[in-house]
Amino acid sequence: MRGASIVAVAMIRFRLEELLKARGWSDYRLAQESGVGANVIGKYRKNQVKEPSLYVMNLLCAALGCGIGELMEYVPDKGARKASSRRKK
What we know:
By secondary structure, this protein is mainly alpha-helical. It has five helices and two strands. The protein has helices at residues 16-23, 27-34, 38-45, 54-64, 68-71; strands spanning 11-14, 72-75. Helix 2 (27-34) crosses helix 3. Mean pLDDT is 84; it is low at 3-9.
């Protein structure tokens, strides 16, 4: 692989727990407002989503009246660094 590559993975964290708490909503209420299943919402709330869906995130943002930047945040991994692009000789 040429060029720099990421060695440690940074994390995208969903802020759904905070957003629901601020509105006094449950997973069930958000499910009703968004059309997204409560089990799926639970995975986003607990940051257990393996492959986030743009479609689901759009529905959540629309129901919560928030932007994508409010729904999720970037949390850098303290150990993240770029690997050198130099090859060993």
